[in-house]
Amino acid sequence: MVARLQVQNNVDLSARQEEILSIVHHQGFATIEALARHFDVSTQTIRRDIIHLDEMLLLQRFHGGAGVREATVRLGYAEKRITAAEAKERIARLTAARIRSGDAVFLDVGTTVEAVARELRGRHDLRIFTSSLAAATIFSADQGMQVFVTGGVLRGPDGALTDEWTRDAISRFRFDVAILGFSGVDDDGALMDFDLAKVAVKQLAAARASQVIAVGESAKLLRPAIVRVLAAEEIDVLVTSEAPAAPISERLVKANVDVVFDCIDESGVLQNGSV
Questions:
Q1: pLDDT for 132-161, tens place per residue?
Q2: CA-to-CA distance for 206 and 200, rounded, in angstroms?
Q3: Which residues are in the HTH deoR-type domain (predicted)?
Q4: How far apart are CA 78 and CA 137, in angstroms?
Q5: Measured between alpha carbons, how far is 252 from 23 in angstroms, rounded to an integer?
Q6: Whose CA is closest to 258, among 242, 244, 274, 247?
Q7: Of 9, 64, 154, 205, which one has the greatest count of Cβ atoms within 10 A?
Q8: Where along the chain do its domains lie?
Q9: At the topology level of CATH, where does 15-67 sit?
């Protein structure tokens, strides 16, 4: 049962619209089809509700669904940590299961990657490399972990290390796996982000890795961003929280990206799959 999100008293919402808002904020993204099944109403009814909520700036309407409104007004880092937290944990479990004993793993910055770091605690068979002070701190109490932290200039509350010191450190290593976060996906399936300095680090880590795993909740698959990170053909695996919409899914499959997802259906049952 999703807790009802509190809205201002002067906001005119039906009970269903309030629950839609709560579901979207809890999951990060919800498709029109899933919401229609949940409420046992038509997709047209849900679409009208989403249009109303979007016009009131309470969520963002995307093709095929709705997500938290952060594409034009980006959330603070503390808010990002609690947005779609359960979805990020499911993504983290799927991602950690793909990491083999003995792997050298690069961890990017971001709240979803931090969730992966928490899943990797206790894996003393791994060598962890990261440009994220937040991710490194997650391992700090585990004396058995091998954790290498790049140097660089600290940028903002996410603990990202950037600049030439970071890139120089990364260029000295080879990784079995690079786990990268992203902020959006372009029409051609390319990963997108907002920060040029962080993008340069992501690109170099990907170039030094045998396998690239991109991690992010499904709302990001329909969200615009401004800086191109990697073409779809440069991604090996995408781990997300819900099956991507058909246009994006088709482009990723054409690029031979292994798309893996793990979601909770309208009856509360955990479903997983791949494309």
A1: 999 999 999 888 999 999 999 998 788 999
A2: 10
A3: 13-68
A4: 16
A5: 27
A6: 274
A7: 205
A8: 15-67, 78-274
A9: Arc Repressor Mutant, subunit A (1.10.10)
